[in-house]
From TrEMBL:
Residues 182-212 are annotated as: Disordered. Residues 1-24 form the signal peptide. Keywords: Coiled coil, Signal. It comes from Faecalibacterium duncaniae (strain DSM 17677 / JCM 31915 / A2-165). InterPro entries: Cell_wall_metabolism_enzyme, Dup_hybrid_motif, M23ase_b-sheet_dom. The keyword Coiled coil applies. Residues 182-196 have a biased composition (Basic and acidic residues). This is Peptidase, M23 family. Residues 198-212 have a biased composition (Polar residues). The keyword Signal applies.
Length: 405
């Protein structure tokens, strides 16, 4: 479906070119403007594609990092659950102990109540004994030994009564003290559980927050993937339109060249009046930008940025604008036949700026642009290619045709 729409766009573009021919110069200028706009559009969409890829990578990296944090938080929540369960169990045991102590206190209070009743009856009897009964008992005493024995018995009874009451009181107080200790321990456990519950609540809130962030990162990655698809589709559309316009320009140039059978030249001049050195020769090498071994189809002249570039021979400008293939700002000139009977073209790449336009006839030595470092370049220089036979497939070593130092 996308391929069909791209083909339709290219067909419409070509139709618009053929339906509105105007003058040759006007048509060529219009087509060159379209080429320039399409080149700029391709560059922009490639930037968008690159940015979308970076955004997707960043989103996926963030998602991975957040998932690791979620795993850590889940582990902490699991530990807290275990601690909470352990404390809750301890609280239950303390409550059971407190219940036992309360039962023991209740039983001890009932025992004290019973003993207190017996004690009151005993004290009443003792009171009666002191009030009169003891006199009767004394009258029955026959000697001093019996009298002393009677007195000791009365004292022992009084001490024993006091001891019984003290023991009951102490036992009850000990039970109540134990109960208070257990209640204090229960309170501490409840406080500890409250702290653990609060930590657990915070961890769960953090988990929910992280899960929301993971979802947001996933959505961001999905949006970046869609942006990549849109940018790639736009690039393919622009490139198809670009090729369609370029073919139309080439047809017009070919027609113009055919109408001038005298288009010929005797030889080339160096396109730079001065340069510092030859920085790269024609031949196989490792590309300094991509690192890939491939044929370097031209010669590189190192020169300061802004150095004027001259047409190496007279001819028609086939292309003048931006290259999506790495040349940056570049110019291609068709020169026609040289005295050896072969047709030649020259390509000038990585210009800072172009000073001519497609379809224009330029004289040998005419300025066509300025040295720069646009496209796939690592420094200011002119990349010059010589095409024997008029096409890039027949690129030859410029040293065989261009005068060099």
């Amino acid at each position: 479906m996308r391929a069909a729409s791209l083909f339709l766009a290219a067909a419409c573009l070509l139709l618009s070119v053929s339906v509105y021919p105007a003058t040759a110069a006007t048509s060529m200028s219009s087509l060159q403007n379209k080429l320039d706009k399409l080149s700029q559009s391709i560059v922009q969409h490639k930037k968008e594609l690159s940015n979308a890829k970076k955004k997707e990578q960043a989103a996926k990296a963030l998602e991975s990092e957040l998932k690791e944090k979620v795993t850590v938080v889940q582990s902490q929540i699991s530990v807290l659950k275990g601690q909470i369960a352990e404390v809750q169990n301890s609280i239950g045991l303390k409550e059971q102990e407190i219940a036992v102590k309360e039962q023991q206190i209740t039983e001890k209070e009932a025992e004290i109540a019973d003993q207190w009743g017996d004690f009151k009856q005993h004290m009443a009897a003792m009171q009666e004994l002191r009030d009169g009964g003891s006199v009767a008992m004394l009258s029955a005493v026959n000697d001093l030994y019996e009298l002393l024995t009677f007195n000791e018995v009365m004292q022992d009874i009084s001490i024993k009564d006091t001891e019984i009451l003290d023991n009951m009181k102490n036992a009850k107080e000990a039970l109540e003290s134990d109960k208070l200790t257990l209640e204090s321990q229960r309170s501490e456990l409840q406080s500890k559980k409250a702290d653990l519950d609060a930590q657990n609540s915070q961890m769960r809130a953090k988990q929910n927050e992280l899960n929301s962030s993971v979802a947001a990162a996933q959505m961001s990655a999905a949006e970046a993937q869609q942006a990549q698809k849109d940018a790639q589709a736009a690039i393919e559309s622009d490139e198809m339109n670009y090729e369609a316009v370029k073919k139309q320009i080439q047809k017009m140039i070919a027609a113009a060249a055919a109408s001038k059978p005298t288009l010929s030249f005797t030889g080339f001049i160096c396109p730079l009046k001065s340069y510092s050195r030859i920085s790269s020769e024609y031949g196989w090498r490792k590309n300094p930008v991509t690192g890939v071994n491939k044929l370097h189809a031209g010669t590189d002249f190192a020169a300061p940025g802004g150095t004027p570039i001259y047409a190496a021979a007279s001819g028609y400008v086939q292309v003048a604008g931006w290259s999506s293939g790495g040349y940056g700002n570049y110019v291609i000139i068709y020169h026609g036949k040289m005295s050896d009977g072969n047709q030649y073209s020259t390509l000038y790449g990585h210009m800072r700026s172009v000073a001519t336009s497609a379809g224009k006839y330029v004289q040998q030595g005419e300025i066509i642009g300025y040295v720069g470092s646009t496209g796939n370049s690592t420094g200011n220089h002119l990349h010059l290619e010589v095409w024997k036979g008029g096409s890039k497939a027949n690129a030859v070593n410029p040293r065989g045709y261009i005068p060099m130092k």
